[in-house]
Amino acid sequence: MIWTEYLNNYKNYLKLEKSLSENTVGAYIKDVVKFIDYLEDNNFSGSPKDITQETIRDFIDFINEKGMSASSQARALSGIKSFFKYLIIDGIIDKNPSIHIETPKIGRKLPVVLELDEIENLINAVDLSTETGYRNRAILEVLYGCGLRVSELINLKLSNIYFDEEFIKVEGKGNKERLIPLGSKAKEAIIQYIENSRDVLKLNKKINNKDTDILFLNRRGKKITRVMIFTIIKDLAAKIDLKKNISPHTFRHSFATHLMQGGADLRAIQDMLGHESITTTEIYTHLDKEYLKDTILRFHPRS
Predict the structure, then answer these.
(1) Residue of 11, 169, 234, 249 with catalytic role
(2) 219 is catalytic
(3) How far apart (Å, rounded) are the C-alpha atoms in residues 289 and 73?
């Protein structure tokens, strides 16, 4: 099928020219595949040149009727728009049928944030007598202490940890690098993990050759997976009977919110989180009611 060729070329474009991560590329491809499947189910036999605004609107109506949430609809449309933008760049089509289609309105949902005592309870719940105890404690300390994405955490390299300078170098979205201060708790937890767990793996020669520079490893000496990070956090939450629905990203939200509460500059938080736009970072001002109250009292002329 001709669409398969376009899809493969689009995938290469996202990887090589846009430098997107495997997860992001996979999400974009998945959205376009949904659209192509819809075309096949409706006996569409044309090429991308034959797609009209009406065709795409009919698809959005279709997934809406199937009960897909507004955020999922918006993401699907974003993937389709990206695909047709690529087709324009590659000269396959000369008119973009998706350009004037509005994104479904999404209500902004504030993220779950942990209180400091909840974070301490989670960290204290780690059993240091187990083989993975020091590693798991270091994972939580780095997630909260540095505000990393889970993908950044599992790819964190030993060679990018500057213990003397107390900084770590992280490769974020789009292969963009940034420096993040390494707090004393996170630094101490990493050192104890290396001395008590990781070095034991090294002595036993279990470390996979390609993962020798990766900080967080599993029992087989290979890079720890995203799924394992989620599992560790879910198990600890259940252990302390935490009622909040949390994930690795919850520690990132908590990192930013607590910085905001402590009076950190919004631009500094943006840099540490690796947000391309300050608009993304501004959500943390909505999480801190005291920050908003203080801002109004300090700057509003009637206050």
Answers:
(1) 249
(2) no
(3) 31
> Which entry of 75, 135, 187, 252 is annotated as an active-site residue?
252
Assign domain 116-295 to a CATH class. Answer: mainly alpha
- Of 75, 149, 198, 258, the active-site residue reads 149
- Place 185 in a pLDDT band, splitting at 50, 70 and 90: very high
Q: What is the location of CATH 1.10.150.130 in the chain?
A: 2-89
Report which of 152, 144, 147, 145 is spatially closest to residue 173, judged by C-alpha positions.
152
100 is catalytic: no
Residues of the chain with CATH 1.10.443.10: 116-295
SS3 of residue 181 by DSSP: strand
Q: Identify the active-site residue in 10, 13, 193, 284.
A: 284
Q: Identify the weakest region by mean pLDDT among 70-79, 150-159, 270-279, 290-299.
A: 290-299
pTM: 0.64
Per the annotation, the verdict on 275 as an active-site residue is yes
Query: Catalytic site residue 173?
Result: yes
Q: Is it true that domain 2-89 has CATH number 1.10.150.130?
A: yes
Tokens standing for residue 294: 């203080």
